[in-house]
Design goal:
Largest sheet: none
CATH class of the largest domain: Mainly Alpha
Number of strands: 0
Strand content: under 5%
CATH superfamily of the largest domain: MetI-like
CATH topology of the largest domain: MetI-like fold
Helix content: over 70%
Distance between the termini: 38 Å
Structural class: mainly alpha
CATH architecture of the largest domain: Orthogonal Bundle
């Protein structure tokens, strides 16, 4: 017993070293990208165009000032917020009942169709949507962007929530029936409160994907409805790429998503873990 204990401790310590080594391998590339983006946003044009990479430099906020002075960045942020919240709200209204029906009546083919719509490249829908919205006079409107972003948020909410609803014990539904609750009342007053963690996780992830999406906004939006990814794109031209301003705009755009993820990480982890368990 005395001999086994040191071996067990050694094995445990070795497992911890391996775990943190693998964690570092995964995290370092992601952290490097964020570090490079932030440091580039704080560099002057002389530092950015130097022949060698400058690890040490005098930070400046000129790039951030340029972002807010040359673009209507606050309006772009408000546009992204309105489009994200609108598309997520509609996705929840439509996606939650759809996910519950698919899980309740075991329709894997429908789930596969939803998944295929999620992984289909957005450019596939872009031209038909542009033709339809042009005919309706909806180009450069919030409703066009919200409907387009439903192609991002609705499949994600539905697909994620199918796993949560599949995990619900049948006894809960049977008990509600015994108490005289209708199918709609059971869904609204019993099922949704139980799965609120999963709903929060699905809503947050859908909003983040909508917030970061670029393609629909660059084609369907106009000057008054452009979103933040388009604001970053505006610092790229045929003859020049302003890397300092691009990284400054990208940093400002990333901050709300990071803050949201930090505050909601418990709901996201618990929600995804709950929906990932099968059987």
């Amino acid at each position: 017993m005395t001999t086994a204990s040191p071996r067990r401790n050694t094995r445990k310590a070795l497992g911890g070293v391996v775990f943190y080594a693998l964690l570092a391998v995964v995290l370092i590339p992601f952290l490097f990208v964020f570090w490079y983006m932030i440091t580039t946003s704080l560099k002057s044009p002389q530092d950015l165009t130097a022949s060698t990479f400058r690890w040490f430099f005098t930070p400046t906020l000129d790039n951030y000032a340029q972002v807010f002075q040359q673009t209507d960045f606050a309006q772009f942020a408000m546009n992204s917020l309105l489009v994200g919240l609108g598309s997520v709200a509609i996705a929840l209204v439509l996606g939650l009942p759809a996910a519950y029906a698919i899980a309740r009546y075991q329709a894997p083919k429908l789930a596969l169709i939803i998944l295929s719509s999620r992984i289909t490249p957005g450019v596939t829908f872009l031209i038909p949507l542009f033709i339809i919205f042009s005919g309706l006079g909806w180009v450069d409107t919030y409703r066009a962007l919200i409907i387009a972003h439903l192609l991002i948020t609705l499949p994600m909410v539905t697909w994620l929530m199918i796993g949560f609803f599949e995990e619900l014990p049948q006894e809960i539904i049977d008990s509600a029936r015994v108490d005289g609750a209708s199918a709609i009342r059971t869904f609204l007053q019993v099922i949704l409160p139980i799965t609120r963690g999963g709903i929060a996780a699905a809503a947050i992830l859908a909003f983040i994907f909508s917030w970061n999406h670029f393609m629909f906004s660059v084609v369907l939006a106009g000057r008054t409805t452009r979103t933040l990814p388009v604001a970053v794109f505006e610092f790229m031209s045929y003859g020049q790429i302003n890397w300092g301003a691009i990284c400054a705009a990208a940093t400002v755009m990333t901050i709300p998503v990071v803050v949201m993820g930090l505050f909601a990480q418990r709901n996201i982890v618990q929600g995804l873990a709950g929906g990932a368990v099968k059987g």
